[in-house]
Fold each of these.
Amino acid sequence: MHHKAANMTQKKAPQKARVRVGPLRNTQEVTKYMARLLKKAAKGAGGGEVNDAYKLAMIASMLIKSMEVSLLEARIDTFERERHG
């Protein structure tokens, strides 16, 4: 019985520190998230953590681009409505 308990404790993976995501409503919030994410990855300097952080940063970068496009579309729509009545 003691042998099984010893094996179970050896199989537990160490818990990774988490990066708080919080709301991502605008580009500033996404940029702050990316900074926290990359800072955590740089401190950890583990191969897996850096790769995961890079992937998440790329997704966040795409999110920023889509937010910028949405903002531009809204501004163009407002401009066209004001111009054409």
Amino acid sequence: MSKKMNKKWLVVANLIICLSMTGFSQEKGKNTFAWLNAGLGYSSLGSLGAVGSLNIQYKRILFALRGTANTERLFEGDELLDLGLLIGYVSRSPKMIVSVSTGVARVTGSYYFNEPAGFFGGHREPTSPVLGIPLDVQIIARLGRYIGLGAYIYANINSEKNFFGIAASIVAMGGYPD
């Protein structure tokens, strides 16, 4: 299969998962809920991955603004960043939040070249911005009304360089409904 065909099937599979995910009871009485998520972890580029998101749930639909930063090696490797708008499915129970989402993102970054280019050695060349398809899964355990801990799994499919990551995250919630 071609790369374009693989991307189409991945998007279709992600949408099916978003629409069919069940298993948690939805809280009654509060249709809107928001949280901030910030995490650090591993990136498929080979080193540090960071993710941050603003998430707004309306009924079972998730709207998110997400950014990621991914490095090959700290200070010397390639760097890829994305900033995306995502939509997906969210479900909450009294102790957990689980969400799956996808959307559209702008991917930028830079490639590091080790050839000497001045006093300090290597140099960076920026990539041209491209559109990507961001994917993410958030699994959050509630620790209190306003805070939680989570696992954040993210990916971006794009024409520059695909990447994924997993991060442990701290979550600030807008007053979790009891």
Amino acid sequence: MSSAITHQDILDMENWTIADITAIKMESIIDRAIRWISLKSGVTITTMTGTAGAKTVTLTAYERPVVEALAALYSIAFITGGSAVGVNIKMGEFKKEKVDDLSIRLMIQEVNEGILALKYTDSIPLRATSVPINDDD
């Protein structure tokens, strides 16, 4: 089973509007999430197609939750400057902080587990990859 998503699906997940993130920026974020997931999982996922601001992408039932979760994390980082996802960015300094927000930790876990699931969907075991949530993990 497959279904199409648009920028609005990700905005709706976080109760945002295009006043928070434009449709074109959100499409760019979704494409970035797709490229990262494709790279880490070894599964080729097509990026968004159509007219800018009205693009769609059709994803499988396995791909959709992973793309949505990573795109939501990227969009949260975009809106907050990274602080909500455990990154505190200052001029010339990169500092990682512990993520205490449970919903963000769950999305990170969903992305990690989803990438692993995609790797094994075709019964071709690939090397496991995990993105640490904080220095204690």
